[in-house]
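Complex 213.
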Amino acid sequence: MQLYSFFNSSTSYRVRIALALKGQEVEYHGVNLRAGEQRLAQHLELSRIGGVPVFVDDNGVALTQSLAIIDYLDALYPQAPLVPTEPLLRARVLEVAQLIACDIHPLNNVRVLGYLQRVLEVGLEEKDRWYAHWVAEGLSALEVLLQRHGSGPYCFGEQPTLADCCLVPQVANAERMGCDLRAYPRVVAVYDHCQAQPAFQRAAPSQQPDFTQ
Ligand SMILES: N[C@@H](CCC(=O)N[C@@H](CS)C(=O)NCC(=O)O)C(=O)O
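Predicted structure with glutathione bound:
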């Protein structure tokens, strides 16, 4: 199995966590988003929209979209499921995952921030305000969801799920960008718990072969 990833990419980080939780090794290909390698012709053959992660299975089948990749891994390696089968818990896990993957991440993606700066000529300070604004809105909503429906130490109980695979990279990004996280105690508690677990540690940006400061 192969993974096209960038150490700092939160969507790649989601898949790396899932792989580590499933105990699966992959051949790692770094795609340098800072250098624009996601837009090179050879990468566009794998991901038409020009992004990471791209997962390639043992039969050479390539898949994009982190949530689809994790769902595939969950089907291939069903022990310790990341997407529960009980209907309401399943919906809650997907609710958190999609809040992060659909409502928070796309607004702050590399190509969106690049468009703001290059095409709309938004300054660095305003771009950072944009980033912080959407992170704050999203994490506030996540905090409410977890306060109302979650239970520790993970998002939903004693076992990690897809929700944790999405939460950790999003919070790591917010932390790296200097966002104030004090208003989200439950989110931070889950984050801290996950960060202490070996599988989450193996998936961290600093542990990847393409890691640079
Ligand atoms: N919805 C996709 C998003 C993938 C994505 O856009 N990843 C970012 C990195 S976190 C990326 O490759 N961005 C490159 C760009 O915007 O140019 C997923 O969940 O896999």
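The mean pLDDT is 97.
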